[in-house]
């Protein structure tokens, strides 16, 4: 039993070690073979933080070969949110059929709020001579009919850190559906494009100004109105789960086996006087 529990624990260690706070996923794919994306995906820079990855990708000489670079920012996005999407969604199909891809589940965020892929978008547009376009669910996508190079920055409403379960899954599916329709519009105009879909550390929605109108009203609701400690705080952290697994499957069985072994020990000596024993007779001998 102890050996099986240890095997299970060792299998869970990589996931627990990677799923630490202040990380986010980064996905990227291109409609045509991208030297910039392939070079970054094959280098050791993917083991570093998001700022180093963005810098290496944006400074590559071949990045300007794409007619459109689409940068999608999704605050509060976790790798588990991507796993909850349907395999038939637009994003999953795009990744599976793209000539060049980059898929990172846990990338360290150097800054608590900044997203380097978005912050450096202006530098990229000036470097490539591209038209910078900002887009969100509350605005209309305006693309140049003359098909000049574009750098399109799309901002999705944030996912709450405390939101879990079916409500978060539903919000993620809704946002992915809207994003897919917007990417389809871009694909109709530009045949050679690169998409960078990056999460960023979640920020409390109390600090954000409410939007006048948005496609995803359920995502921008005040978290205090939802109530419940499980809605606002993450209680089962990876470290706590690891401690519970060690306690339940290793320490408790070892203590139980030790106590059982000690209780089964019987002394070979006995203090009872044998039957027929006579002290006087023993003395005369």
TrEMBL record:
Its GO CC terms are:
endoplasmic reticulum membrane
Where does the record place it? Endoplasmic reticulum membrane
Identify the keywords attached in UniProt to this record, alphabetized.
Cell wall biogenesis/degradation, Endoplasmic reticulum, Membrane, Signal, Transmembrane, Transmembrane helix
Give the signal peptide range: 1-19
Is the keyword Endoplasmic reticulum in the record? yes
Q: Which InterPro entries match?
A: Big1
What is its membrane topology?
Answer: Single-pass type I membrane protein
Transmembrane portions of the chain:
240-262
Q: Which GO terms describe its biological process?
A: (1->6)-beta-D-glucan biosynthetic process; cell wall organization; fungal-type cell wall biogenesis
The answer to whether UniProt assigns keyword Cell wall biogenesis/degradation to this entry is: yes
Q: Which family does it belong to?
A: Belongs to the BIG1 family.
List the protein's name. Protein BIG1
């Amino acid at each position: 039993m102890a050996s099986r529990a240890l095997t299970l624990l060792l299998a869970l260690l990589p996931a627990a070690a990677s799923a630490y706070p202040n990380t986010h996923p980064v996905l990227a794919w291109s409609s045509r073979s991208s030297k910039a994306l392939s070079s970054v995906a094959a280098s050791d820079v993917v083991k570093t933080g998001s700022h180093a990855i963005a810098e290496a990708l944006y400074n590559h000489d071949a990045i300007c070969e794409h007619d459109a670079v689409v940068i999608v920012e999704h605050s509060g996005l976790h790798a588990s949110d991507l796993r909850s999407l349907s395999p038939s969604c637009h994003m999953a199909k795009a990744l599976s059929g793209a000539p060049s891809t980059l898929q990172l589940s846990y990338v360290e965020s150097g800054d608590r709020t900044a997203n380097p892929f978005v912050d450096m978008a202006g530098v990229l547009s000036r470097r490539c001579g591209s038209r910078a376009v900002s887009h969100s669910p509350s605005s209309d996508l305006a693309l140049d009919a003359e098909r000049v190079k574009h750098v399109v920055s799309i901002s999705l409403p944030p996912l709450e850190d405390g939101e879990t379960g079916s409500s978060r899954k539903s919000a993620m599916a809704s946002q992915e559906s809207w994003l897919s329709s917007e990417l389809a519009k871009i694909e109709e105009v530009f045949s050679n494009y690169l998409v960078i879909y990056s999460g960023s550390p979640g920020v409390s929605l109390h600090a954000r100004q409410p939007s006048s109108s948005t496609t995803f009203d359920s995502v921008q609701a005040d978290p205090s109105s939802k109530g419940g400690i499980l809605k606002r705080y993450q209680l089962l952290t990876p470290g706590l789960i690891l401690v519970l697994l060690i306690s339940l499957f290793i320490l408790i069985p070892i203590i139980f086996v030790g106590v059982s072994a000690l209780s089964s020990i019987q002394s070979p000596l006995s203090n009872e006087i044998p039957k027929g024993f006579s002290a006087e007779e023993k003395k005369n001998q």
